[in-house]
Amino acid sequence: MNDLKTCIEENKHLINKHLDEYLEIRYPDIIWESMRYTVLLDGKRLRPLLVLETVKACGGKIENAIPTACAIEMLHAQSLIHDDLPCMDNDDLRRGKLTNHKVFGEAIATLAGDALLSFAPQVIIQKTPTAVKNEIILKILEEFLITAGALSLIGGQVVDIQSENKKIDKETLNYIHSHKTGDLIRFSTRAGAIFAEAPENIVKVFDEFGRLIGYAFQIADDILDIISSADELGKTTGKDEKSQKSTYPKLYGLENSITEVKNLCKQAKNVLINNNIATPVLIQLTENIMIKSEKDKK
Amino acid sequence: MNDLKTCIEENKHLINKHLDEYLEIRYPDIIWESMRYTVLLDGKRLRPLLVLETVKACGGKIENAIPTACAIEMLHAQSLIHDDLPCMDNDDLRRGKLTNHKVFGEAIATLAGDALLSFAPQVIIQKTPTAVKNEIILKILEEFLITAGALSLIGGQVVDIQSENKKIDKETLNYIHSHKTGDLIRFSTRAGAIFAEAPENIVKVFDEFGRLIGYAFQIADDILDIISSADELGKTTGKDEKSQKSTYPKLYGLENSITEVKNLCKQAKNVLINNNIATPVLIQLTENIMIKSEKDKK
Lengths: 298, 298
What we know:
The structure is a homodimer.
Chain A: H1 2-22, H2 29-39, H3 46-57, H4 62-84, E1 93-94, E2 97-98, H5 100-104, H6 106-127, H7 134-148, H8 153-163, H9 170-195, H10 200-227, H11 230-233, H12 239-242, H13 248-252, H14 254-274, H15 280-293
Antiparallel strand pairs in A: 1-2
């Protein structure tokens, strides 16, 4: 797995450098500090990596997609800041650090999330190289905004909140997973293909690949929530159980969940291989999700 | 003032019809209901009116600007929803009705604001007639997102929050006013001129006009907060005093504030008249702000 590790580290360095640059502190400092705090928390930068690796797989130029890759990471951070608020999941820890509102207070944390929501697409407009056609930028912006909104990320979060302490069916769980976390991963691979100006059928392949690993990733995350300690995970664990959240392992059991992750990852790999667009990094990334979900067996 | 009244009513009808259409209820219903609740509260639709009247003044087609006029109203509603939250201004009433979180709870209200922040620019992309050039849509989107963000609306709100219970100077008050409320009014007139493809000097004229009436509007609002009853205003009054907010009337006195509104409105009218782009509606709208601020003298 050395290749993947190196690749993740290089990508992290590249993305963090740009995020740091885009989010330079301006007046009033506190809001930029709060935005930076969560965006720049240590993380794998999985979504930006998926964007840039898909661009490469489709033979495009990664520099065209860097602002969008960073915008996706900012949107991800925004959703974490607001999800952690006392009126939502009320979380104190995130990636091993205090959550945004614990450091900056609820008002600034709410506003920092808002600010990221408009700053992220602004970065796409202002920082994407002028060589990229306006129609591509508009297509990316449209999909980005849909993904951020009530039909997608927020829709998933709403149904998640409404499902607490309730017995939910498979369809509802599927809706929560595919929208709350899946759609942003799916958009990441789509965006890569769109920037590379890949033909429509290839965009669809990456759409499907993103959908499959997004779902696998969420189930693996829920498995980890059960089997890991807070130390390892850097966030409050066992939260799902405590808050009576419905998760895949809870509905189907741990063993079935691990099998499902394996199946999804296998399908995801096959989608790429069957269309001759598999790259070593994308395959290894997918296998990594499988390994993550099997951690408890070691 | 009959002309203006008719014009306001017709504009209100047009904008409400489109807002109602854009915000059709989808799954999960509760989030769309929450978004609709605040967006469709009875209001004058001043900002959309400014967009469309500026388009007319510049000889453009209003249908090109309707989605953006509605997006501005949605952004305005978003800022109200989040400003009213317990962690911010903690308001119970807005336009004579319960605030969003009082009806839908804090979590949904927070998410409804978030959803509006991404839905508004999405409407600009999806609903602007295809006849409008991509570069104009991108310019509008960029300015919209800047106005919504930390350099503008949110920056103003942050400094406003930080200034509570503090003695602030003229520059700080000016920063709060121009960003928290001024910039969206300024963007409304700019957007109208941009959609009409007005030459750069005319866009600048409408930028200045928007800046002047935006400032006048905020001072008039603060005057009203002091002199009106809650019944008349439809929101909690005397809030500024209670929360120790610095306002123009507080720093300069009521008489000076009324004089300042008059001066600003006079300047605003002159900017239009001197450039031969005054329309009866824009002039009457400006005079209306003056009358509003003089209400107490009657």
